[in-house]
Amino acid sequence: MTRSYSMAYLTANGLDPVAATELAARLGFDKMSFRLLPAGPGDAPPPILTDDGLFARVKAALADTGLQMSDAEMIRLGPDTELESFRPFLDRIATLGAAHILVAGDDTDRARITDSYGRLCELTWDYGLTADLEFMPWTGIRTIADARELVEAAAHPAAAILFDCLHFDRCGSRLDEVSALPRGMMNYVQICDGPVPYDPDGVAMMTLGRTARLIPGTGGIDLAAIVARLPADIPVSVEVPNVALAAEIGVEALVAQALARTRQLVDGAG
């Protein structure tokens, strides 16, 4: 069975999107992702959304390398989110050939976010895109059960759960909940390792997730047990941002090791 591997946006560890595309192709990835919207309040908008020249170069790099765009980051659903404001983002990522959008839930009002997520699915589906809801322990959608509740309530072909090994290890969900997820409820998974023990403070977990994930096999997460419960054909996104290690050994060496160790992990589980 041929499995596809994608280089997650954060795995580029600061490379510009054209250089990241070229690196991903050189190392043997099939797909990659880009960030076009801010990851959180106060973050600067990534230039690929507004810089037409950069956008054209990224599109050309994808065509030249033959890489596909797997997913785009990221839509955050908060109490006051205006869904129509995402249309320029949706236009751009659809043009680049993206298939999925990473969605975070920042609204703790369950009825309101259930409604907004359902409406978001309708909007993204108009562009041929899915809305993949990532559970994260410091957000309003903390666990597998939280994400599954919203996805099932949406009852829409665009609705899906994004499974991240780091967040699963820290959110309190169980392995049997992974096994119980229907195959059609997930489009891809993000794989990395992480330190154990860890600081459970929300800001600390968020910072670690953005800047200090570990190459599979170098941390304390029981990745083999997790991967054994994932669908055998699920596409894999390698997500290993590590600022310190990238500075020490270089981005290319880090990404090459991350891909090799992820393949080894997944092949072993298979």
Task: Walk me through the structure.
- The protein contains eleven helices and eight strands.
- The chain is an alpha/beta fold.
- It has one domain (7-269): TIM Barrel, CATH 3.20.20.
- Helix 1 packs parallel to helix 2 and helix 10 (243-249) packs across helix 11.
Question: Layout of helices and strands, plus pairs?
Answer:
Elements (H helix, E strand, L loop, with lengths): L4 E3 L9 H11 L3 E5 L16 H14 L2 E10 L9 H10 L3 E6 L4 H16 L4 E5 L9 H11 L4 E6 H7 L3 H5 L6 E6 L10 H10 L11 H5 L8 E3 L4 H7 L1 H19 L1
Parallel strand pairs: 1-2, 1-8, 2-3, 3-4, 4-5, 5-6, 6-7, 7-8
Report a brief summary of the structure.
The protein has 11 helices and 8 strands. The chain has 270 residues and is α/β, with parallel strands linked by helices. Helix 1 packs parallel to helix 2 (52-65) and helix 4 crosses helix 5 (144-154).
Kindly identify the CATH topology: TIM Barrel
Give the CATH level 1 class: Alpha Beta
The chain-level mean pLDDT equals 96
Round the Cα radius of gyration to an integer and report it: 17 Å
Return the structural class: alpha/beta
List the secondary-structure elements in sequence, H or E.
EHEHEHEHEHEHHEHHEHH
Sheet with most strands: 8 strands, parallel, barrel
CATH architecture: Alpha-Beta Barrel
Strand order of the largest sheet: 1-2-3-4-5-6-7-8
Strand content: 15-25%
The general outline is globular
Helix content: 40-55%
Distance between the termini: 10 Å
The number of helical segments is 11
For the secondary structure, the number of strands is 8
- Provide the CATH superfamily: Divalent-metal-dependent TIM barrel enzymes
Question: What is the total domain count?
Answer: 1
Q: What are the low-pLDDT stretches, counting only 5+ consecutive residues below 50? A: none
